[in-house]
Amino acid sequence: MGSTSAENHGTEGVGRRDLIKRSAALGLISVPTMSFLSACASSGGDDSGDKAKAGKKTAKNPLAVNDTAGMEFVLFDGGFGKEYAEDAVKIYEKNFPKASVKFSATQKIQSTLQPRFNQGTPPDLIDNSGAEQMDMGVLAGKNQLTDLTPLLDAPSYDDPGKKVRDTLRPGIVEMGRLDGEKVWILYYAYTVYGVWYSQKALDSLDEQYPETWDQMLAVCEKAKKKGMAGWTYAGKYPYYLPFSLYPMIGKVGGREVLDAIDNLEPNAWKHPAVKACFDAYYELYKKGYVLKGTPGLDHIQSQTAWAEGKALFIPNGSWVENESANVIPEDFDLAVSAPTGIDSSDKMPFGTIWASGGEPFIIPAKAKNAAGGMEQLRIMLSEASSKNFTGKVKSLTAYNGGTDGVTLTPGLKSGVAALDKAGENVVNPRMQDWYVQLQKEKIGVSGLGEMMAGRLTPAEAIKKIQAFADETANDDSIKHYKHQ
Amino acid sequence: MQHGKYRFIVGFLALPLGLYALFVVWPFIQSIYYSFTDWTGLSPEFKMVGFDNYSRMLDDDIFWKSLQHSLLFALLLPVVTIGLALFFAFMINVGGRKRKNGPVITGVRGSSFYKIVYFFPQVLSIAIVALLFAFAYNPDSGALNSLLRGIGLDDVQPLWLGDPDLALWAVMAVLVWSTVGFFVVLFSAGMASIPAEMYEAALLDGANRVTTFFRVTLPLLWDTVQSGWVYMGILALGAESFAVVQIMTTGPGGPDYSTTVMVLYVYQKAFRDGQAAYATTIGVALLVVTLAFAAVVMRLGRRERLEY
């Protein structure tokens, strides 16, 4: 700084050109590499107690919501849109006219909310869903979530004599637990997974939906003769295959096989039932019953090929009806079935299906108005809001019932029928919400995807998947869960 | 007379350097700091874990796969892209035959049209390009396989992005397609500034096109080529490879991790698996790779500067 002793720096003076060159080079490098990472640098949230004071507990306000406190609600704007939530927000605003509600919908849940969690200023209610879903295990493990037990024990919106938890479909409360008794997540939608097909196409083959694998192969053979492939699936995202494969494994070997897999028990994948089911699926490939080119198709492309009648069956979830609405022909007569089993020696009856909650709602631990968030959920779990959802987006909700008087679309109707038929025999594998990377990339893409593309035999696939599962079990940077 | 020189310099540079330190250098330091913690990215709490993340990284097969692919991107893409771009630029600007009454040095017929054609992909966002090609690679109804069927090759129906042996090449081809035009234009500009007399002299001496290119054009264009080389390598390591792999390939990350790259792995660890600290560790590795790449290219490419 204004140094007079220039000779100190004489030979190695700043050198404008060099400086500019160097800084330009550095800047150029930094842009694509790391700067985006630190954009979410944590800035140490302050835990000042600016939480909303509790309101007055009344019959109409069992959660003691402060009727002047603001409430912020962030929704995942995905396949179900945002209208259903907006309608529910209107009810909240009507019930608490003095409260200001801030509602927003986004597809970028994590990029929007991660910095706010880091700063300790999250919203009061979040639909933590979609491709950018935040890891629930991490959130719960780091004490970032509110226990929803008070909501479950509150009287339901429609009937003060009934608790909210008694109005929910089976499995919803259990799914919201990670470990221990606390309920961190409320799954609002209710998804039926299985084998989806066109009843019309099946009728044109003069066939019923096959109950044993021999029948399945016979139906596929018949379809092949008519120039139609038996199966297609989201080849680029082969983790759609488990939607019918996992319940099939459960049907063949019993629930405990699926539980062992979820618990990452040693040799869980080496159970004979897994081998039998893998062999069965591999046979579809071997006999040429899978639509040509399927391993290179994404979910939309495969659904489109299926809707165009190029393939008979596709493993999928009940959102497919809404997602493919624009490509499914009028007279398609969409139907879903529980997966085909091997034969009559299977442990569980035909009809065993995978159904479980979707659209996970959470309330952050640092929410200013947690009671408000819960009240909003209580409103959404009323019969009227549930009917509104089902009518608008062709999907069931966690509310048990709520379909009377709603005109059901063919797919939804068939889903309800499949649930009725299944009765108690509903399985709920947890891989996809407990171990995302294991389920999607390792089991899905590197295991099942490779096998169905004919690049692995079932035995090799099982060996590989077991190794992946062991790796995850031994990785202490991942939180582990157990069925209780 | 030296008095006040540094005050002058500091006065001018303080603000930009301050901004640079705050927005470029500081995030670097922060990222490196986080790589020594167990920060999840989802809560403000974390503690120091020393070199745990680094030793974990060295044991991580997927990390090594992604490093391998990233290096392949950084080495191969610039060679192919810049090689093609040099060829195209040469043909457009110099490679034409002499036409009656025309200038001595000229491009091939229709060269101005080609220039537009080559540059066109540059106008499209990389996301759009990736989507377009994802459709073209569709094995069932995509343009490529339809073309193959059209010319009677019914048996040759590759799975493209669904085949672990092809997916990486398919993705690279898209990057070449989308970036080559930029370099054609860059090199064309460089060639335009080479004096025509040099070419005329070479022609009079009986040099053919190949000799002209290697003896005249390339040496005079060397600086531009070198900058282009570094630029392309950084693109291939960073933003562009992320976009195409994320949008186009299976998984994403390709069948059996055949296309996963470092930037994608950073993203997945930070924003899918809730392991932001481990992600910054991979980010640091990526920084090292990028710096090493730039240093190697600068060093290997050092040549005497030709003045003209």
UniProtKB/TrEMBL annotation, chain A:
It holds the Pfam family SBP_bac_1. Gene3D superfamilies: Periplasmic binding protein-like II. Keywords: Signal, Transport. One of its GO terms (cellular component) is cell envelope. It is found in: Cell envelope. Belongs to the bacterial solute-binding protein 1 family. This is N-acetylglucosamine transport system substrate-binding protein.
UniProtKB/TrEMBL annotation, chain B:
Its main location: membrane. It is a multi-pass membrane protein. GO terms for cellular component: plasma membrane. The chain crosses the membrane at residues 7-29, 71-95, 116-137, 166-189, 229-248, 276-298. Residues 67-297 form the ABC transmembrane type-1 domain. InterPro entries: ABC_transporter_permease, MetI-like, MetI-like_sf. One of its GO terms (biological process) is transmembrane transport. The keyword RNA-binding does not apply. It is found in: Cell membrane. Keywords: Cell membrane, Membrane, Transmembrane, Transmembrane helix, Transport. CDD domains: TM_PBP2 (cd06261). Belongs to the binding-protein-dependent transport system permease family. This is N-acetylglucosamine transport system permease protein. It comes from Streptomyces paradoxus.
